[in-house]
Design a protein that fits this description.
- The protein has 576 residues and is mainly α.
- 57% of the residues lie in helices and 4% in strands.
- It is built from 28 helices and five strands.
- The longest helix has 55 residues.
Length: 576
């Protein structure tokens, strides 16, 4: 509280009481004395006191009626009121407290008790305001943190979705373009009253965001099919068609682990139905006409338009005019005729899409944002598991890191640095530390025998590709600070304490602490898990390996802390 004196207003129809009270309070507080409740409200038009002393028994308007007015006014509702009364009975006290008074002082009052009661309630009011201010700041901090996590996960999800769509070219832009096409097409549909009733029931923001997952099932398709430069065989095409059902199944799995519904509901419908055709000849379910969910019919047009106008491994990009003509020819067979009509009326706007910025104007609530964070977390878990071609270790690694960081916070050596981190962002960033493995062929990742020298060089390149992913994420998020941990972990978790690691051969403390921590956790998880080329080791065997690697692979002090807490790692390993 600042040095300004606190303001007290006293209301009493007895001039003697007013004089005595003023004499007792004037040395410490700014005191206003008024003889009636009517005069009180006139004073309150100009002064906001910290406390009101209010007599109960007054002519015209008594204290009970006055406090009712005070508590009904937003400007005075929080000002504490102490009743002054000569009535000493429980019924009167209960009535006053029920109306919102904070205390009673009986008349005639002793100076010491009078001052102590006032001092107590002014202190309580100050603490209430401080708590309210703290609560407000905390709420703002939580909102900011939620927004930052939301933006970071959105950027990662968007980038990984691009990676799923085009594994050999991270800058494909398909996801971003189709989102812009969707916003444009939905806007046109609303303006032209096409399926307006159904669309108006959607949260457009969630729908557009969910479109990033329309091809998530492709993460299950083998590289030799997904990246084939020529025409697919009949068998290969049948394999490719499975991505729709596989994508919907992935999203169903995610639904089981989160309470979020709208985002995933749209995502599942998009994944399952965007390859259905109006005439029933599409896949996977051969749906026809309006049996196909509207989400899928809308996505079909923007997805095909982008595919036609973009270079692919098996074809050159068609011109805008050629693409529009193909969509026109697909009216009533491939596509919903109503949607083709609105597309054709506004096709020039689609041609200029790259020169326009689209902002989804529909607001997204804080609650929806928080739900999306949990939903996207599960999506990142699934994508990490499948793209990185690992054994579902993502959650284990996060738990191992939580154990390790908690232990390191007890160490004077590491505590100071870790306290500077946003630990939430560190844990989120760590989940995609090996995302670069998505660029390595399945024949190498899943090889059962020893890697050749060239294959090992290919494996090592996953760090460089991971950094390429991070650069793409940076383009999708405004706050680069959020990516600090992601970058540090990705490029340094294969460096070794003795300088024999990769990609830069960093040595000792030249390796970021994030990478030194992740190196231990990554190796512990790897050798306690089955791999294509070997069986997992027991926890006891791994502990001996960690001791062996201390001072060569790993920082000795970090290994010592790991060994002090190895039972917690064993418990976590056993719980999976």
């Amino acid at each position: 509280m600042d040095n300004k004196r606190e303001i007290i207003v006293m209301v009493d129809d007895d001039p003697t009481c007013l004089t005595v009270a003023k004499n007792n309070l004037v040395n410490k507080y700014d005191i206003f004395t008024v003889p009636s409740a009517d005069k009180l409200f006139k004073v309150l038009e100009k002064v906001t006191p910290h406390l009101i002393l209010l007599d109960i028994e007054m002519p015209q308007m008594n204290g009970y009626d006055a406090i009712k007015i005070l508590k009904d006014n937003n400007n005075t509702v929080n000002i504490p009121v102490i009743f002054l009364t000569g009535l000493i009975d429980p019924e009167s006290e209960v009535k006053g407290l029920s109306l919102g008074a904070v205390d009673y002082i009986t008349k005639p009052f002793s100076k010491e008790l009078f001052l102590k009661r006032i001092e107590l309630h002014l202190r309580l009011e100050m603490q209430r305001k401080q708590l309210e201010e703290y609560s407000h700041k905390l709420e703002e901090k939580v909102k900011k943190k939620t927004q930052e996590i939301f933006e970071l996960q959105s950027a990662i999800l968007k980038t990984v979705a691009e990676l799923v769509e085009c594994r050999d070219d991270i800058t494909g832009g398909h996801i971003e373009r189709t989102q812009k096409y969707l916003v444009l097409l939905l806007d046109i549909m609303l303006k032209n009253n096409v399926y307006m009733e159904e669309i108006s029931a959607w949260n457009i923001h969630l729908f557009v965001m969910s479109s990033q997952l329309h091809d998530v099932g492709k993460i299950f398709i083998r590289d030799n099919i997904l990246m084939k430069p020529g025409k697919l065989t009949t068998e290969e095409f049948e394999e490719m068609k499975k991505h729709s059902i596989l994508g919907a199944n992935v999203i169903e799995k995610i639904e089981e682990t989160t309470s979020e519904t709208a985002f995933l509901r749209h995502a599942k419908l998009l994944a399952a139905s965007h390859h259905e055709k109006w005439d029933g000849t599409g896949y996977p379910n051969g749906l026809k006409g309006e049996e196909i969910p509207l989400e899928g019919r809308v996505m079909a047009i923007v997805d095909v338009y982008d595919a036609l106008t973009s270079n692919r491994q098996y074809k050159k990009a068609f011109s805008h005019a050629e693409s529009v003509n193909i969509i026109r020819e697909g009216k009533g067979t491939f596509f919903d005729p109503k949607l083709v009509e609105v597309f054709l009326k506004h096709e020039a706007e689609f041609e200029n899409i790259s020169n326009r910025d689209f902002i989804v104007t529909e607001s997204i609530s804080q609650q929806a944002k928080e739900q999306l964070i949990f939903a996207k977390q599960e999506i990142i878990n699934v994508i990490h598991t499948v793209i990185a071609k690992e054994d579902g270790s993502n959650k284990k690694i996060r738990h191992y890191l939580e154990i390790f960081v908690k232990a390191l916070l007890k160490s004077e050596r590491y505590k100071k640095e870790i306290l500077k981190w946003d630990i939430d962002f560190f844990l989120i960033s760590a989940q995609l530390y090996d995302i670069g493995k998505a660029n390595i062929g399945s024949n190498i990742i899943n090889k059962t025998g020893k890697l050749t020298e060239q294959e090992f060089e290919d494996i090592k390149n996953h760090v460089a590709f991971g950094m390429k992913v991070i650069q793409q994420v940076k383009e999708n998020v405004n706050n680069e600070e959020l990516l600090h941990h992601f970058e540090a972990i990705t490029f340094s978790h294969h460096e070794k304490w003795d300088g024999t690691g990769y990609p830069k051969g960093l040595k000792g403390e030249a390796i970021p602490l994030q990478g030194r921590i992740m190196a231990i956790v990554d190796v512990y998880d790897a050798i306690t898990s089955d791999r294509a080329h070997r069986k997992k080791m027991s926890h006891a065997e791994v502990i001996e390996k960690m001791r062996e690697y201390s001072g060569t692979h790993f920082e000795p002090e970090l290994v010592a802390i790991f060994l002090e807490n190895e039972k917690e790692f064993e418990n976590e390993l056993g719980s999976v």
